[in-house]
Design brief:
- By secondary structure, this protein is mainly alpha-helical.
- It has one domain: Orthogonal Bundle (Hypothetical protein af1432).
- The termini are far apart.
- The chain is globular and about 45 Å long.
- About 60% of the residues lie in helices and about 0% in strands.
- Bound molecules: fe (ii) ion (2 copies).
Length: about 200
């Protein structure tokens, strides 16, 4: 099954700045994503994107929402249409005439799967957060205290353990951090500290 998108241009540049309202985005999220575990993953990535946009990029509220929106919808089609993963949500957002940056970030959240490289910072952070966030959350579920007292060392130990979250590619995690130009340790610590708040 190939998920290659076979293109690098998404949406229409005339739509720059056009975003979904939070209400419409949540409606789409709940209509498309029925699996509660996947919902948690998408909410966590959305939260990380928003926090990073605010704290590290210094973006205003609209900018923060744009990053959050990309995180919130990046796996929207994975639950019900896995064979159309990425393609379906991008085409849907194109039909809604949404800012092309949001589609590009979604399209590049798995360069090895979709064949689209992350270009700007928003793309790169989505790629960097995606798999690592999932691995850290899987670790939290195994710990008696969840995120409480979780540290960098523990996560790095799990990363080295091939049998833990075996389907998560360690090479991809490192590649994503390299592309974002952020030390893996910093990225892990950031995720631990921010993600604890989104565990519903
Ligand atoms: Fe995905
Ligand atoms: Fe994801």
């Amino acid at each position: 099954m190939s998920l290659l998108l076979n293109r690098n241009e998404f949406g229409n540049p005339n739509n720059i700045g056009k975003l979904l309202s939070r209400k419409d985005a949540m409606q789409l999220f709940h209509d498309w994503v029925l699996n509660p575990k996947l919902q948690v993953h998408m909410l966590q990535v959305a939260h990380l994107m928003k926090c990073w946009a605010a704290e590290k990029e210094g973006l205003d509220e609209t900018g923060q929402w744009k990053w959050e929106l990309a995180g919130l919808l990046h796996d929207a089609d994975w639950d019900q249409w896995p064979e159309l993963h990425c393609k379906k949500i991008i085409e849907h957002l194109e039909s809604l005439e949404i800012d092309p940056d949001v589609m590009h970030a979604i399209a590049s959240h798995g360069p090895n799967h979709f064949g689209v490289d992350p270009v700007n910072k928003m793309d790169k952070m989505l790629f960097a957060f995606d798999e690592l966030s999932g691995l850290i959350h899987a670790y939290s579920i195994l710990r008696p205290g969840g995120y409480e007292g979780m540290d960098l060392k523990g996560v790095k130990k799990r990363l080295k353990e091939k049998s833990f979250a075996a389907n998560v590619s360690r090479e991809e995690i490192q590649d994503a951090a390299n592309r974002a130009g952020i030390e893996l340790d910093e990225l892990i610590s950031y995720i631990i500290s921010r993600q604890a708040k989104v565990t519903e």
